[in-house]
Amino acid sequence: MLYFLSELSDGGDIFNLFRYITFRAGGAFLTALIFGFMFGRPLIDFLKRKQKKGQPIREDGPETHIIAKAGTPTMGGLLILSALLLSTLLWARLDNGYVWLVLFVTGSFGLIGFADDYSKVTKHDVAGISGRMRLGIGFGIAAMAAVWAMLLHTEELSGHLAFPVFKDTLLNLSVLFVPFAMIVIVGAANAVNMTDGLDGLAIMPVMIAGGSFGIIAYVVGRTDFTEYLDVHYVAGTGEITVFTAALIGGGLGFLWYNAPPAAVFMGDTGSLALGGALGAIAVATKHEIVLAIIGGLFVVEALSVIIQVVYYKRTKKRIFLMAPIHHHFEKLGWAESQIVIRFWIISVILALIGLATLKLR
After folding, report:
1. 86, 105, 126, 297: least buried by Cβ within 10 Å?
2. By C-alpha distance, which of 169, 146, 188, 166 is closest to 283?
3. Three-class DSSP category at 98
4. pTM to 2 decimals?
């Protein structure tokens, strides 16, 4: 919205700053951060009053959770999403299709998560809405997003899959790009959701991945950078950087209250929305494969659940003491803070590897 102030500029005044993505990204970050600090405590108090018993805790989970986390409210993702959506609408160019695409996916998956959280706290049951319903609606949203992305991409890129390192290679998936993109978006949403099991565990890797994709979006949206790095130019994606900056600001505001011991959980409201956002950004920037590298921690968390379920159904035995894998390390005796910080470190390493693919050839 504020971008249009640049139309008042004669090229040499303060209004000219609003032309620059970097300036508006900084504004979005600060706006979301301040929003989080201002409204975090009032929202937590409101959620406590409404939820009373807080988020239901799995009885088959780590024993310490039943005692330490009982009564903690959920739906803290509302704080992140409110800060994120408000800041993006305020600072991003609203005539940019990629911005609306990412906002659509984020908001839609946020609504799915909200419905699931609401079901859990009102029924005080960890089940929530059925997994099939969640997946069905999620795939429907992702299908619309995939078609939307294909329409926004140039003819050269639409329906194609790009590869890191092998930068001249484009695989024409044609209509099969739609189901592929659906898997990327829904897979990312659910992988982040599975990771969200310890205080601060999911939000920091989400911010790290978001910041990495902010860099990628800015790079692939500029012809000078894409020519130098020999990556595919995706006109207009640079504006997504404003969104990712707002994500980091909102995430930090939330982490202030989610740091151990958490005053609030983000719940499915936040985890599904933020995971879906990462998937949508990867599809928009043509870096779907790089998402599997930068978001490698989420991939491992999701795979640990899949492997555990499949293996148990076949053998009635477990590979991990408990899945997702962060609970396995809890069962081994690792402290919660140990697991969280070490997983953060892994996320930073994977992000650096993913960003390195921009230059590697």
Report:
1. 126
2. 146
3. helix
4. 0.95
Tokens of 71: 């009564």
Phi, psi for 161 (deg, rounded to 5): -110, 125
Exposure class string for 184-219: b at 16+ Cβ within 10 A, else e: bbbbbbbbbbbbbbbbbbbbbbbbbbbbbbbebbbb
Preceding peptide of 261 cis, ω within 30°:
yes
Minimal CA–CA distance to 102: which of 198, 205, 217, 249? 217
Q: With left for phi above 0 and alpha for psi between -120 and 50, is residue 348 left, alpha or beta?
A: alpha
Q: How far apart are CA 214 and CA 355, in angstroms?
A: 11
Residue 119, judged by CB atoms within 10 A of its CB (0-12, 13-18, 19+), counts as middle
Taking a C-beta distance cutoff of 8 angstroms, is the pair 281, 288 a contact?
no
In this structure, are residues 160 and 177 in contact, taking their beta carbons and an 8 Å threshold?
yes
Contacts of residue 349, Cβ cutoff 8 Å, sequence gap at least 6: none
Place of tokens 């009635």: 316
> What pLDDT, in 10s, does the model give residues 146-178?
999 999 999 999 999 999 988 778 999 999 999
